[in-house]
Amino acid sequence: MPADRPCLLYLHGFNSSPSSQKARQLIELFAAQGWASQLQVPALHHHPRQAMAQLDAAISALGRPVLVGSSLGGYYATHLAERHGLKALLINPAVSPHRLFDGRLGPQCNLYSGERWTLTADHVQALAELEVPPPQDPLRYQVWLQTADETLDYRQAQAYYQRCALRIQAGGDHGFQGFAERLPALLAFAGFRLPAVTV
Predict the structure, then answer these.
(1) Most buried by CB count within 10 Å: which residue of 7, 21, 169, 197?
(2) Are 86 and 64 in contact (CB under 8 A)?
(3) Could you tell me if 85 and 108 are in contact, meaning their C-beta atoms sit under 8 angstroms apart?
């Protein structure tokens, strides 16, 4: 990927996939703008170590992508942004997700692919290994939170990312309502320019 062309790597959340609503909205927008080669939306493996291997390969292929991570993907994106010095936009990101699975080990099913798998203590340990200190460079991050997230307490992310550019919206949900309307802001952060609209 040429260094002067912006590119984006989207990281979906737990038991999600490239078929999720936000991922599809990004894919459709990039296709419509002729930017398909500048976007990757991998179907991440359920095991964190294999997911990180996929993401490291995607970063190598794209060069220096801007990361967009939702939920667990936001946790992954934070680790990768800190390790590679990349920009990241996080949407209702998980904070310390390994602490959220107490008592929840066992059978799982991907909401989109139907894949069945088993969440084990090794998955949780692998997640814990990815934890990094709160980011200290606020210019490389935007964090979008909605206060009515039914899955994660937005206040945890608000505290963890307090030095970063926070965009906190009242209401909403874990899927982040109104994502499509916020795409111009995402593109601007990532360095893309939408064509001017003439009247």
Answers:
(1) 7
(2) yes
(3) no
Q: How many residues does the chain have?
A: 199
d(CA 148, CA 43): 27
Question: Contact 78/90 with Cβ under 8 angstroms?
Answer: yes
How many other CB atoms sit within 10 Å of the CB of residue 22?
22
Token pair, residue 174, equals 């874990």
Contact 107, 49 (CB under 8 A): no
CB 194 within 8 A of CB 33: yes
Global pTM reads 0.94
Residuewise pLDDT in 10s, the chain (199 residues): 555 789 999 999 999 999 999 999 999 999 999 999 999 999 999 999 999 999 999 999 999 999 999 999 999 999 999 999 999 999 999 999 999 987 789 999 998 999 999 999 999 999 999 999 999 888 899 999 999 999 999 999 999 999 999 999 999 999 999 999 999 999 999 999 876 544 4
**Superfamily name with CATH number, domain 8-190:** Alpha/Beta hydrolase fold, catalytic domain (3.40.50.1820)
